[in-house]
Amino acid sequence: MEYKNWGFTEIWNKSLEEREDRPLKVRDNLWASELGKAPIDLWLKMRATPMTNPPNARSLRKFEAGNVFEWIVALILKRAGILSESQKWSSHKYDGLLQVTGKADFIAGGKVDIERFKSEMSNLDLPDVFFRAGDRIVKHLVETYPDGLAEMPLEIKSVSAFMFEALERKKSSSKIHRMQTFHYLKSENRPMANIVYICRDDMRMMEFPVLNPSEVENEYRSAIENISKYHLANEKPPLEKPIIFDADIGKFCKNFNVAYSGYLKLLYGFENQMEFDTKYTPIVSRWNRVAQRIKGGKDMTAKNEDVKNEIKEAGFNLDEILTHFVESETTEE
Q1: What is the pLDDT of residue 333?
Q2: C-beta separation of 186 from 220 below 8 A
Q3: Which helix (H) or strand (E) holds 224?
């Protein structure tokens, strides 16, 4: 028999890109995961406007990576006997505003069954890391909460190392994730939920609580009011700025609401994200570089002064931004 090399990577990559999209249809409700997204994009989506820039192959693979990490968490919760529900639908509506609907990743709580965990996990052919991590988690929960765990939503988010470390430095969750998670509390009058972040690069985890009541409701309601105002008046929202100051990470950054817009070409004239990045990545880098120099009290060159003026001309209050700017060894975007 003639020896022939074989492989499966091409099939694997294509299979990850085969994702059935939710068809666009005219609607009068928001999804919890849309809170914080660009009003102009939501306005078009809610009118079933066809996208000029649907998710690309890389974005689709990220979605699937997120599903894998959710599965890992579900496996441990279920085997420990504390997974109550997954993808639980909920809805909430303030008077005069759009209805918001969504599905919580997990509702978990109750008394940990350590014997069930050991028995069921032993029958699974999984890497040793899952047994080690799962075993320690379960033992910790049993020892710390002998009477059982209060039931609450868990929202699982897989992120890049850059985003993970930025949130870790700020000791705060992302605003869009807080608003989404708060929806599951508000809609069912629950007091607490956790956002669990998993780093896609090295499997680190961290979590942040979201409380009800809390100031997060102001963020949640404000986001709903913003799109409701435009949608109910049938008024087209303004375009987004291509560069924003992200208070979650304390840096200037490209506006992901533009870069990942499904209407990037229609609204902003860019063929794709690469074209957008080519234009704005250098600008973001020099803005952060100069902001870091100012924050560090370093002498300013004539070029630095030009960049300061560039930032101000773009409509940013540099003095205010510097109070939130986070210094770091690098300012990579």
Answers
A1: 38
A2: yes
A3: helix 216-232
As a whole number of angstroms, the distance between CA 277 and CA 287 comes to 15
Is residue 90 scored above 60 in pLDDT? Answer: yes
What's the pLDDT score for residue 166? 87
> pTM here?
0.89
Residue 268, in any domain of the structure: yes
Query: For the chain, where are the E strands, in sequence order?
Result: 29-31, 83-92, 99-110, 149-159, 192-199, 205-211, 243-246, 251-254
CB 109 within 8 A of CB 188: no
Tell me which H or E stretch contains 66.
helix 57-79
Identify whether the C-beta of residue 113 lies closer than 8 Å to the C-beta of residue 81. Answer: yes
Q: Is it true that the peptide bond before 54 is cis, omega within 30 degrees of 0?
A: no
Mean of pLDDT over the chain: 93
Say whether both 174 and 265 belong to one domain.
Answer: no
Same domain, 26 and 170: yes
What sign does the dihedral 266-271-274-277 (CA atoms) show?
A: negative
Could you give the angle at the alpha carbon of 104 between the alpha carbons of 106 and 246, nearest 5°?
A: 115
Which domain does 249 fall in, by range?
A: 241-322
C-alpha Rg value of the chain to the nearest Å: 23
User: According to DSSP H, which parts of 80-190 are helical?
Assistant: 114-122, 128-144, 161-170, 175-188
